[in-house]
Amino acid sequence: MKKKNYDGFVLVLACALIFATLCSCAVPAAAKEIVPDGNYPIWINESGDYNLKGNILTGDVTSGEWAVIINAPDVVLDGGEYIIDGRGPEGSGIENGIWVQGRSDAHLNNVTLRNVTISGFYRNIMYTYADGGAIEDCRVMMSSYSGPYLYHSKNIVITGNNITDNFIGLDLYYSDSNTIYNNIFRDNTKGDLMNAGESNTWNVTGRSGPNIIGGPSIGGNYWARYTGATDSDRDGFCDDPYEVYNDDEGVVFYDMLPLFFTIEPPVPPTTEPTTEPTTEPTRTSSGGDGDDWAGFTSARGSIPAGGWANFTFSNGPITRINLLVTSSVSGALIQITPNNLPPDADAPGDGAVFGVYEISLKYVDNPGECWIYFEIPESWLAANGLNPGDIVLKYYDDGEWKDLPTELLRIEGGKVYFRAQASGFPYFAITETKGGAVTPTPVVTYASAEAEAENTTVTETETEVETTGTVEETTTATTAPDAAETTAPQPSPISCLAAAAAFALVVLVMRRD
Prior knowledge:
This protein is mainly beta. About 10% of the residues lie in helices and about 35% in strands. The chain is globular and about 65 Å long.
């Protein structure tokens, strides 16, 4: 009788273990979709994963403070290939972009923004009283005050971001214990950084790349202001640390492993522009063909009439677009959408097609001369029985595909590099046309760091949200271990073993009975 009671207890316990294990291994809920409908702010009030499914263009909204407000913990917002943009006619538009809205008495934990392209707000991104989470793989551009702004926030990982053309790149107001690495800081008017904080970390332990600028190693950040840098051992890091912050009291913070890159001298167009485009880092494509490339956006700040804007793209066959601006603009965006044929259009020719692209230009009226740089793998040419000179960039105009003047620049590292002179927007195709590209011209690569002019007079001042005491700042120069990466939760091996053990107990009891 005792045996029967004991076996019954074991049977119940084993079944409970199986049930609990199945619950712990449940598949996470699917991400929720955010479809903008013109009503702002968009509120995220519940924990979970969210995918943006449309552009948020607030220029036509007459008033408002925020485009998106997150006030729940454990949120991941993925911007996909869409744009969040706040510029509009003078005096209109939403003032700020994305707000992670923690409070001093209720901090928000583990909020991550991923793959967000955001531009044109006063503050593009703001975390207040947040703990944990990340800002990763985002393009944060053309804010009138700050790109990312952390306010009394800690343990945020900021990595893989292009922080460009803002008034201030990154503001860390009373925000400590954050890790900032593998980002691009470029063309931020007042500076790349404000309020460095006393214990933020500017690099992780060096490891193999590729990094955000296509170099071989991951460690610190790319600082466009770091002039005169060298990389004598060719490890992808500058030989000397970068002085991240130096206030009036002489307090210094260091990026111990700043990223170094090899750049190419600009290839002048057939007709020399009045102003030479700024040289950008060499970029590489992420895929072997044009089919798996996600759309990408690049932006530039103020451009004078008759000036050249140089847009760069890091994850597709189109790597750069140089554009002559006929009238001054305060900022410009270019978005490239792959595999998008014009409405009712036929395929671009009878030969092999590497890719079709819609190139959308925003905030620039009546653009002038345009040069498009692209690259394709030699393996794709060989697979289609083509020579490098058989490739041309086509443009869709008046119901037909037309060849554009296409120049073969060089063949290097298993890739073939081209440029073409465009005559309009928005539809293009990289395709086969026998004898399409002209003879290549040699281009010499060399190692250097980019020089940047810093003579802009700044008069704007910032009004803080809250005034407290003075943060005591100390000198730090350390290399931190890698920050924890945000990944989807995986079932525990221990849970699976527990389930197996429980099942074995059930079988044993049944056999004994």
